[in-house]
Fold each of these.
Amino acid sequence: MNRRLLPHPLLSLTVFLLWAVISNAASSGLLLLGGLLAFVVPLLTRPFWPAPPRLIRPWLALRFCAVFAADVFTANWRVAWRVIGPLHRLSPAFVEVPLEIHDPFLATLLASVVSLTPGTVAIDVDRQRWVMLVHALDAPDPQALVQEIKARYELPLKEMFAC
Amino acid sequence: MTAMTESAIAALIVLGALFVLLGSIGLARLPDFLTRLHGPTKATTLGVGALLLASAIFFSTREGGAISLHELAILFFLFITAPVTAHLLAKAALHRQAKGPGDDPQATVTGDSLREPEQRSQAAGRKP
């Protein structure tokens, strides 16, 4: 019953929170409307959603967000120095990261995280070989970058979702 | 609004502006398309993030103002759309480079998966 009425609990939560934030909801009427939207929107859009893997360890997701925020901050400073420093010392490189995650949704999440972290942009995920192509602004040691992406982002993602 | 919150807001605005500026400097200075792509990602994450945080604090602590959280929604939408644009731009750049007249695809593209099959065979035929 639960799965049929609420096919995507996370999507419902997102819709509700977004509604509350956008409308700055203080009155109970607005919150009620948000609840209704959170209930109806996933039901109406159900055919469009692929079956995403289930989040089994939410506390790991919180830690992942904290690590990600800290990384965005430090990587920003690092890249800022690279940008105003001498350009000939940069060694931009394409890096191929072999993925252990074989799920389109998680691969998208991983690629987004990599792109949002300054200094690296995820360009392509090859779904035949499950390899993610990443362009790095400054990677003197590409192998170290591969290890870092796998250990910092891929492993927690794999652990927190059932896949 | 106390002096404490005011200085925090001022510091956040300066930090945000600094990173937007650095992102723009990167965009102007870096030599080629793919490295330039790294400038705007920086500006959108920390730069706009700090500016929006400052805005949220300012409008929440204003006299007679309610808590303002619109900024979180902006940040959320920015964070889920910025990687998509970066991804599309990078992919388009690689395809155009690979298909450009007189370009050697071998020299510009390293990922085998990015080339269309017929191009791959062409490249293989030209460079045995």
Note: The interface with chain A takes residues 19, 22, 25-26, 29-31, 34-35, 37-39, 41-42, 45-46, 49, 66-70, 72-73, 76, 79-80, 82-84, 86-87, 90-91, 94, 110-111, 113-114 of chain B (CB under 8 Å).
Amino acid sequence: MHIVVCLKQVPMVSELPWDPRTGRLMRGQAEGMMNPACKHALEAALRLKEEHGGSLTALCMGPPEAEEVLREALALGADEAVLLCDPRLAGADTLATSHTLARAIQAVAPDFDLALLGCTTTDSETGQVGPQLAEELDLPAAFNVEHLELTGRALTVRRVYDGFLETLEMDLPALLTITTQEFAPRETPLGGLERAFAQASVRVMDAEAIGASLDRVGDKGSAGRMLRVYSPTAQKKCVLLTGAVKKSVQELFERYGDRLGGLIGQDLASEEEGHDQ
Amino acid sequence: MTNSRDVWVFGDYRNYFQNRVTLQLLARGRELAQAQEGELCAVVIGHDLQQWVDEYVAHGADRVLALDHPSLTAYQGETYTSLLVDLARERKPAVILVGATSFGRELAARAAKRLGTGLTADCVDLRLDDQGRLVQTAPGFGGNLLAEIVIPRHWPQMATVRPGTFQELPHDYERQAPVEWLPLPAGLKPERVRLVKSERLAPREQALETAGVVVCGGRGMGSKKKFRNLVELARLLGGQVAATRPVVYARWCEEGALVGQAGRQIKPQVLFSFGVSGAIQHTAGIGGAPFIVAVNKNPGAVMMQMADVGLVADANQACLALIRELKKRLRS
């Protein structure tokens, strides 16, 4: 059993230096942390490894600092860590990212049985890399998984999808994305972290080493082009209701009852006869 | 064949939110199609589709492509992707819009990958610029930032949009539009993922991550006892209760309800926020809900600025007043 887990380092938002007026980000100055859903995916991988044996490869694409999340994965029990670090990989959208990760997995773990990812990241939040990686690797896959069971080569997973609780089955090799609902991550042991930082066991690879086509990675391989980034808080118009509580609440329903009702699927606009003030 | 100027909307009909988001996308898609003199086309895949086809025509579709077959009764990622991608290759729409439901996100991501094009997630606005490019406005960092994105050299331009972002058009059941009932193509690969069981969840059984309505309380609720009032409000709204870090530290509720950078990442359609100041560690987890109602004594709180409607009031008093008002309205 060989599991590959893809991890992403995201900026710790509390430290994120950005100008609320221009909305310009200084990503290079931000403190990094392991993306929350990736932590849960790593936990799922560790539990599978404990139960079924085998090996665990942690993979991360990012700048040199992203090595930290791989050290963390090694401290928790990953056997091998690979950092995809190459300026030519930077600026990738999900199309380019999924190509890069697919090439890397085929290069470092061609015999893998299961690929695990977090379902979404806190910085770009697209949730697209998992499905697109499954496409490129041509694997059976399930997304937003909360529970999984492996019997031989048969994988049974459970997930909540659009208000349905679904149970799905597939055979290995397969790909799953994991939510933050279950697989609460374990604490990183301090001793393990020290050892993981002392041992130089993170393998660093560039675009050539993983055999990626240079026109399909990074900014060059991306289809989306950003025109501008700005802060919406400066623009969102909040309607303030400042009267007595009861009056404000009634005003809320009178003005937004249709919209609220539409969103929650209930008729809230019409008040019962006889209650009109 | 050159690319058309048509705008496609995926007909995600499975349940209420999917149904509404399709109608909402048809409304915006219609504006985009008319602006570039193209057709607005609804593409619906599944079984027993007549009522949905009628609904899409009534809500503004100029044409409906329907793939109706008993083997398509359950949503299937691989099969639906193949069908959508084959149709897109054949007819070359300029734009494909998909509702950002769980399935919609998967389908759009897979299809964009197979078509080798760009896909912008969770767009909050879509417009055409003077060169006829689709300008997609999408959030990042939990809605704290917005980016404008174009897909200039790839085809088609694809976007997902969350339910509640656009307003649907009033229906017109007199409206007529051509409907093409397409046969299931031969040689479809069998789905490798087998659906063993699927049960519809009552809203209250849904996880925080997928809840459509979230009622979130912060320190401003005042006490553990008052915090419990949020549970009643959430029950009436068919939603889930979430909390900020001070509330979890004070043990007013269980740790699993913590939303933010260190806790759960939620994406509700509606967020009610009571007595929450709006520290970025918390707001990073609320995913730019399309409609936010905040209650705070301080009108200058960050959470109030992020909200669509802000009630300047005591959080618990407002919660109790909302419960009373909702009970009246839900009864009627």
Note: Chain A has two domains: 2-216, 239-264.
